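Listing S7. Sequence submitted for prediction.
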Amino acid sequence: MTTGEFRDEDLKSRARAPSWRVEIAGSPAFPCREDQNVLEAMRHAGLNPLAIGCRGGGCGVCRVRVSDGEYFARPMSTACVPPEEAIEGLALACRIMPRTDLKMSAAPMDRCCKPKARKAA
């Protein structure tokens, strides 16, 4: 299957995936399917309350603090979200998928990956 092609079973699976309501402070709520990450759903809804970086859990640009709700988290950089902070609800929007309605806010990037200084050649 090439990029952009969908099989009938893919479409049926997406139609069956539960959809949850996601609220990011300062922005209208939007739907997010259980099989979709929050950042993807936010962009699909035409909203941009969070910055977008690598989309792979490594840069930390889309860091959020989830204040209410449950989610599944895919692997993300522990430099951006250390395990002790993940327990407290910090996550990367590109790596979390809702299991209930979610309420969250943008989180500061103080612990995130920072570019390393290059040595002069």
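Caption to Listing S7: primary sequence and predicted structure tokens for the chain studied. The radius of gyration is 16 Å. Residues 8-16 form the longest helix (9 residues).
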